Each structure stands twice: as C-alpha cells, then as structure tokens.
Amino acid sequence: MKQSVLIASVLGGGIALGAVGVAGIQAMKSSKPETAIVASAPLAQASAPAIQALAPSAASSTLAQPAPQASTPVAAAAPQPKPAPKPVHATHAKILGVTPIREAGTEPKQVCHQEQVVHQAPVQDENRIAGSVLGGVVGGLLGNQVGGGNGKKAATVIGALAGGYAGNRVQEGMQQRDQVTGTRTICNTEETKTEKIVGYNVRYSLDGKTGTVRMDEKPKGKTLPAKDGKLLI
Asked: Which CB contacts under 8 angstroms, 24+ apart, belong to 121-125?
C-alpha cells in the first residue's frame, strides 16, 4: 500500500513538472504573464508536500546554528603625553668683566726727617782743674815779681789765687765754645689717607643670562664653575 502511494506521488510530481515546463514555454512565446501564473499554480500545489517535508529539517538546521555573538568594541588607548625634556645647563660661566671694590679710610703713619743740630763737645775735665792750676802758677809768678820780703810772699800767694781763679774761668769759656755739629732724626705721627681693595664685582654670562656676583678674591682665568644653572663659588 505504501509503495503504491509513493509511486503515485512520484508520477504526480513528474506530471506536474511536465505541465510546468509546457506552461513555461507557452508563456515565453505568448509573453502573457497571466498564463504563466495560472500554469504555475499546479506546480505550487504539487510541491507543497515537499516544502512541508523540508520545513522540519530547515528549522532544525536553523536551531543548530549558534547565535552570533555581539562583538565588544575595544576602546582605543589615549596617547600619553611625552615628558618635557630636561634643560641642559652649562658647566661653566663666562666672565664678562671684573671691577675692584675700593674702600677709602685713614691710618696713622710715622713720618721722620733728619735735621742738623749743634751741641757742646763732651767735657773731659768737668772741674776745670787744669785751668785752675795753670792760672795759679802764672799768677804766683807774676805776684812774686811784686815787692820784696814778706810783701813779696803775700803778692805771690795772692797772684797764685787770682791766677787759679782766672785759669778756671778761661777753661770754662773754652769748654763752652767747644761745640760740634751733627744730625738727628725727628719723627712725627700723621694721619694719612688710604684706599684698599675689599672685594671684586664679577660680571658673568650663564645659560644665556647675565649676572653679577661679589667675590673676595680676584678670579683666576676666564670662567667660573657652575652646576644646574648656579655658580659654584
């Protein structure tokens, strides 16, 4: 029974396909769309069981396919800013000029000079004994020449005394007149003006900038050491 139904179905399908082919040819010749539509109706009716038979398999294949997964958009990483380059500093500053710092003042100073002086010569016979003796002898001789007898003796004694005194006075005068000339140094203290250097103003150039620094001593050379934009002094 089942075989008869299957055979009938195959025959029916073949007849339907033949009818569709004939109808298609006639439609192409007549160029009438209505005929083609009417002729295709038996084909649609004949193929309906086949479509129904294929429907479960199509549905199963549709269910077997996995659902497409939504792709997650990846956010683009923001560019990181580049670090600023470190400034490059010179290792030495160029000296543009050096000016000494002067300070005025006063200080005591001893000023000396030589001058000529006259003074008495050193006295060897301070008591003037030689003059007294010599004067006494001369006076005695002169007194002895006067008178005679006891008067002569008295005249001799008086002459000796007078001669001694006179000789003493004469020697004293001679000693006072005995002078020598010499020089001596005379010194006085005077306030004199002074000017001394207490430092130096040094003008320099470093990293394109100019500046001035005070130094106690005069720099040697034409540069000053520097680090990180600052002088090393």
From this structure: 121/175, 121/178, 121/179, 121/180, 123/175, 123/178, 125/171, 125/175
Please report where in the chains the tokens 């000529």 appear, as a residue.
116
- Structure-block tokens of residue 132: 């007294």
Torsion over CA: 130, 136, 137, 138 (sign): positive
CA distance 102 to 27: 128
What Å distances lie between residue 211 and 90, 126, 203, 222, 230, CA to CA? 15, 83, 6, 15, 11
Cβ burial, residue 164 (10 Å; 0-12/13-18/19+): buried
What phi, psi does 230 have (nearest 5°)?
-130, 150
The tens place of each residue's pLDDT in the chain, 233 residues long, gives 544 545 555 556 656 656 555 555 565 555 444 433 333 334 334 444 433 433 344 334 433 444 445 455 555 667 777 777 788 889 999 999 999 999 998 989 898 988 888 877 777 777 778 778 878 787 777 777 766 666 767 777 787 888 888 888 887 778 777 777 888 899 999 998 999 999 999 999 999 999 999 999 999 999 999 999 999 98
How far apart (Å, rounded) are the C-alpha atoms in residues 6 and 113?
164
End-to-end CA distance of the chain: 122
One-letter identity of residue 28: M
